Amino acid sequence: MKIVSWNVNGIRACIKKGFFEWLYEAKPDILCLQETKIAEAELTKELMQPKGYHTYWNSGERKGYAGVSIFTKEEPIKVERGIGVEKFDEEGRFLILEYEKFWLVNAYFPHSQRELNRLKFKLEFNDAFLRFAENLTKTTTKMVIITGDFNVAHKEIDLKNPKQNEHNAGFTIEERRWVDEFLSKGYVDTFREFEKGPGHYTWWSYRFNARKRNIGWRVDYFFVPIQFLKNIKNSYILKDVLGSDHCPIGVEVKI
Question: Superfamily for 2-253?
């Protein structure tokens, strides 16, 4: 099974840049989207019923902000749109799908913003998500796959210019320590199981020709509990897929 995740930074903008052409060529079994920036009332027929896929949307309460979606060839058993914490769930940052043999969690983590104005909110979000993930993992025998834009580069290797960004949003000590804590609970960053080297990023600024120069950050991830790592046959970055300031990431999973 091929699962792909992509922060599209506005699904309507991404469509104009070839989203559907890419989707029908790539044909992932499941596609998780973040930052869709569209209200469910604004969804077109093609977004609600793309050829070969069921789609699920969580747009949140604030128009044109955040939002997640999942396109899936196989219809899930259950769909959940939050983790049970109102101030986080109202922003439309979660879709949790249960299938016969696994759970899939699609999450869009907050950005801590310039001047770190939202760092406290993000750290509270992180802690709530960790409690949710631990509870899910402990109460099911099924595989759990967690993906999305976590809005943090974990290690210095995960961004081009770590020293210049030590106190900036997405690379603060507090955000990075949370990833350490998350991994300490038994989760694995799947990409790093297949690629140990530098220069692999998933987000580039639109400024300064950053993408062409590969001045980027790796902030999008697939995580699984360590006992399910044997089911991950590959984890990769689709750096050449355009349409957003992020590129898609993918995993090949034996279910």
Answer: Endonuclease/exonuclease/phosphatase (3.60.10.10)
